[in-house]
Design a protein that fits this description.
The structure holds two protein chains of two kinds. Chain A is mainly alpha-helical. In chain A, 74% of the residues lie in helices and 0% in strands. Chain A has helices at 2-17, 19-43, 47-66, 69-77, 80-86, 91-121, 129-153, 157-174, 186-191, 196-207, 217-238, 260-268. Chain A binds chain B through residues 2-3, 6-7, 10, 13-14, 17-18, 75, 78-80, 82-83, 85-89, 241, and chain B through 52-54, 73-74, 77-78, 80, 82, 84, 86-93, 97, 100-102, 104-107, 127, 143.
């Protein structure tokens, strides 16, 4: 336990000390939040109602999708996993510690956004704090689980960027962060349910900020939690100590199983 | 009688159709410094990685203190210390954090004294990527020995180290050996292997080309002693004079260097010639064949004699 806590403390410090992680955990989400906060309510007044959840979702996507996978791939390629294995660091610690530290950084960012937005941009606080926290945790689970999985299966840093952006960019455009779900055309509307961001925004609307959900908010929570569990479980199963990432317990296509909960949701959530 | 702590028996490792190690066997005794030598691609790294539990062998058996590295890797963690050739540390970790982290995983108190001993205490709060290559290697070495392992694997430990750090490392190795630590030293530095190792094994194309003490290995070669001589009037050089007992010779600057199996006879012939020419010796050096000479002889021949 002491070793785990030491490892956790080191990784948490890295989230601020490492320039890339500092950018993804804090600077990028905060910069985007300030920019959106000043611009969007002026040109689209209803955005005020969803500014806080949208910026929290953006922060989660930035820290998880852009912050978690690359350090994992670099660590594997640079032989850090080998060094960890020799010194008895379990695979579970290697995967779970970035998830915990990223979530801690996200808590700080979510706290800053939620507290400052009403003061800076005259938006209202979430009406249901427990629903807000629950949705935050579910979205963090889904995003971190998926991000860890990308870090485990990506063959190189270049592939990491590709896979991460494949989730990050559509999430911002179609996930309800910039454009409400209800405004998307039919097919895009349905396809967007594959993205964790769509479910997070839906759950925030239904459970936290006093707006009607577009579909079952609790269904979204279940899908986010299941995506997190699937992502992390698959990452643990497919984890490889090998710096060349060639030896693992199963084929990498198994990673696509992380989409199962959201694909099921597309059929059952209306 | 020496007790084997590392046993390698008919060990084989393949990567697809390529055989990296082809049925080698040797034992390393407790408290011994054992040099593992070989050119690139000889199978050293595969052997080390299987012993360290990083890879599984494809044949034969490996044992460290009675444990199978592949099957008992968790039990083995506290028994072995490994200095990998690649640093293998996060770039933002500081030496102090690394020491605390690795020691906590080995369940021992952090050995900050080792940072001082290896000359990196002043950099203990510097991030790993900001350390010089030598400092990085010294840190990795400090981490490898911090939990007092019974068997220590050193892969090219002096690569990138300055002279003072090499001396400190060798002194640390001797100290560890005196405490009973067994050291497996993989190196390309023949002088280091010859000075530090009790026994060495030379691997070549996945096979064991030679094993024994450095003295035994050098003695089994062609055994040509090198006699370098520089005289005042260069009487041996102009014209070049050679002798019946000399196998071959070469000229380097003002020295003529003779290679001979019969040192006494050759020396007598050289001195007689110098006396005849009324010349005077300025410098005379007699060097027995080194491990490096023997290594080059084995590797250039491409196999075991």
């Amino acid at each position: 336990m002491k070793a785990f806590m030491n490892h956790l403390a080191f990784e948490f410090g890295t989230g601020v000390r490492n320039k890339n992680l500092l950018l993804m955990n804090y600077l990028f989400p905060l910069g985007f939040y300030l920019l959106m906060g000043f611009i969007m309510p002026a040109i689209n007044p209803p955005f005020r109602e969803t500014l806080i959840p949208a910026m929290v979702v953006f922060a989660i996507l930035s820290a998880a999708m852009l912050g978690i996978p690359d350090p994992l791939v670099n660590a594997r390629e640079n032989g850090i996993f080998r060094s960890y294995k020799i010194n008895g660091v379990p695979a579970l610690s290697i995967l779970v510690i970035p998830v915990i530290t990223t979530t801690l950084h996200l808590l700080i960012i979510a706290f800053i956004i939620t507290l400052s937005a009403p003061l800076l941009f005259a938006v209202t606080y979430p009406v249901d704090l427990s629903g807000f926290i629950l949705t935050f945790i579910a979205m963090a689970m889904a995003s971190c689980g998926t991000a860890v999985l990308i870090g485990v299966v990506a063959s190189s840093s270049r592939m990491t960027v590709l896979w991460s952006q494949l989730i990050f960019v559509p999430s911002i455009l179609l996930g309800g962060v910039m454009i409400p779900y209800s405004m998307l055309p039919g097919v895009a509307n349905k396809l967007s349910q594959i993205l964790p961001a769509t479910h997070a925004m839906n759950a925030f609307r239904g459970l936290a900020i006093g707006l009607p959900a577009d579909f079952s908010a609790w269904g979204s929570i279940i899908i986010l939690v299941l995506t997190g569990i699937f992502g992390f479980g698959l990452a643990l199963f497919l984890f490889s100590w090998d710096s060349r990432n060639t030896r693992r317990r199963g084929p990498t296509w198994l990673a696509f199983l992380v989409l199962l909960p959201s694909i099921a949701g597309m059929f059952f959530l209306g | 009688m020496a007790i084997p702590i590392v046993t390698v028996k008919d060990f084989r490792k393949q990567y697809g159709s390529f055989t990296a190690v082809d049925g080698i066997s040797f034992e390393i005794h407790e408290g011994e410094i054992f040099g593992l030598l070989g050119p690139n691609g000889a199978g050293k790294t595969s052997t080390l990685e299987c012993l360290e539990g990083l890879r599984k062998p494809d044949g034969g058996s490996l044992q460290i203190a009675g444990l199978d590295p592949a099957a008992d890797s968790q039990k083995l963690r506290n028994l072995i210390g490994v200095q990998l050739q690649a640093a293998g540390l996060p770039e933002s970790i500081t030496p102090r954090e690394a020491m605390r982290l690795f020691c906590s995983y080995h369940n021992v108190a952090p050995r900050f004294d080792l940072l001082e001993r290896l000359g990196i205490s002043e950099k203990s709060q510097t991030q790993f990527y900001e350390l010089s290559a030598g400092q990085q290697r010294r840190l990795v070495l400090a981490l490898a020995v911090a939990h007092d392992p019974k068997v220590l694997f050193l892969d090219e430990p002096t690569a990138g180290l300055d002279v003072a750090s090499r001396v400190e490392l060798h002194s640390l190795m001797e100290e560890l050996q005196a405490k009973g630590t067994t050291i497996l030293l993989a190196t390309h530095d023949m002088a280091e292997a010859e000075d530090m190792s009790d026994r060495v094994a030379i691997l070549l194309k996945g096979k064991l080309a030679a094993i024994g003490t450095p003295m035994q290995i050098t003695a089994t070669g062609a055994g040509l002693t090198r006699i370098s001589i520089h005289t005042e009037c260069d009487s041996l050089l102009h014209p070049v004079i050679t002798f019946p007992s000399v196998q071959h010779f070469k000229v380097e600057e003002q020295y003529i260097i003779y290679f001979s199996q019969n040192v006494g006879v050759t020396l007598a012939e050289i001195i007689a010639s110098i006396n005849v020419h009324k010349d005077t010796i300025i410098d005379l050096r007699v060097e027995r064949p080194s491990l490096e000479d023997r290594f080059l002889e084995i590797t250039s021949r491409g196999g075991v004699r």
